[in-house]
Amino acid sequence: MSGVGGDMRGEKEGEGAAGPFSFSPEPTLEDIRRLHAEFAAERDWDQFHQPRNLLLALVGEVGELAELFQWKPDEELGPQAWPTRERAALQQELSDVLIYLVALAARCRVDLPQAVLSKMDTNRRRYPVHLSRGSASKYTDLPHGAASEDQVVGPADLATGQAST
Questions:
Q1: Of 58, 68, 71, 78, which is most buried by a Cβ count within 10 Å?
Q2: Is residue 146 within 8 Å of 128, Cβ to Cβ?
Q3: Rounded to an integer, what distance in angstroms lies between the CA atom of residue 96 and that of residue 156?
Q4: How far apart are CA 104 and CA 32, in angstroms?
Q5: Comparing C-alpha atoms, which of 142, 148, 145 is closest to residue 121?
């Protein structure tokens, strides 16, 4: 990030002449966790940050993010072509979503970077390239039963006999 408010880094928004987009190396998720924890502690807000509260705040922020896209035409350039004010709102709402997601993960003691690595490994097994390339099908609907012993089975699945992701 450059500066307090961050940098939209418009020159790298997609696969244009500047190449594919990439995030800046800082702040890390741990930096974000620490910044939010300090911010909340200074205001004595930890008492309001139980997992349910953080989840509901996250959902609210996702709703605000969705409002930015509501009723927009599906343009080829998408948000890259939005006016500056709307791009700034997009940055703010995405930041809110990330902050609450990191805070929720921290409160639930989920190491997000490790969880992502594990989930990507699971997804690679569930969606082998040769069966899923170009397909939007769920792994359980891929040919030859691509679903395997890696399926996650939850309480609702036990009743129906099906597994979910």
A1: 58
A2: yes
A3: 31
A4: 12
A5: 148
Tell me: pLDDT of 5 over 50.
Answer: no
Q: How many CB atoms lie within 10 A of CB 32?
A: 19
d(C-alpha 24, C-alpha 1), whole Å: 6
42-90 pLDDT tens trace: 999 999 999 999 999 999 999 999 999 999 888 678 898 899 999 999 9
Tokens 């605000």 belong to 64
- One-letter amino acid of 124: R
Asked if residue 73 has a cis previous peptide bond (ω within 30° of 0), the answer is no
